[in-house]
């Protein structure tokens, strides 16, 4: 898919104030620092459309971007940021959960997982909650440039095995790097195929 335009629309704390349109929407979620905002920049080929940081807890709002005047990309805050106080973690959790459950335009949620780590309880619980809630989602492994090919394959197979302990059918899985663009075309083609359905 060719990205001819990508623009910031609005930031919100409240799902009811998100853009009132019928455009299909694709959102990015995952632990703080997993690379959600970076992947949005990579997909759109824009250096700083979404704000990124080496410190976790950068994105704290629901951020809408309009792509090709046809669909929205949404950058969400991360979950599980240990250094945030419990009050802030609870507030962010409610914001994320209400966005995911109430936003009718949400067409697919991309759940980002750092390919370097073993499956973490917080991600597995989140994925199970999505499945139980009937939310359409895909898994996106990030930071693939940080591992050798064989270690990458090993980690991803192990992750799939872990998911298969609970789910008979795996969701679509993508392997990406915002540093070298790996997986960019596949993700954009996937979005394109859903948009055309
Ligand atoms: P929060 O908004 O805090 O939840 O984080 P985020 O998930 O949006 O992460 P962000 O995109 O801000 O990236 C966090 C850090 O990881 C930054 O220092 C990025 O440069 C780095 N990073 C993100 N993606 C990649 C990647 O594919 N490869 C490498 N090597 N670094 C990455
Ligand atoms: Mg971010």
TrEMBL record:
Residues 22-197 form the EngB-type G domain. Keywords: Cell cycle, Cell division, GTP-binding, Magnesium, Metal-binding, Nucleotide-binding, Septation. The keyword Metal-binding applies. GO terms for biological process: division septum assembly. Its cofactor is Mg(2+). The keyword Transcription regulation does not apply. GO terms for molecular function: GTP binding; metal ion binding. InterPro entries: G_ENGB_dom, GTP-bd, GTP-bd_ribosome_bio_YsxC, P-loop_NTPase. PANTHER family: ENGB-TYPE G DOMAIN-CONTAINING PROTEIN, MSS1/TRME-RELATED GTP-BINDING PROTEIN. Necessary for normal cell division and for the maintenance of normal septation. HAMAP family: GTPase_EngB (MF_00321). Belongs to the TRAFAC class TrmE-Era-EngA-EngB-Septin-like GTPase superfamily. EngB GTPase family. This is Probable GTP-binding protein EngB.
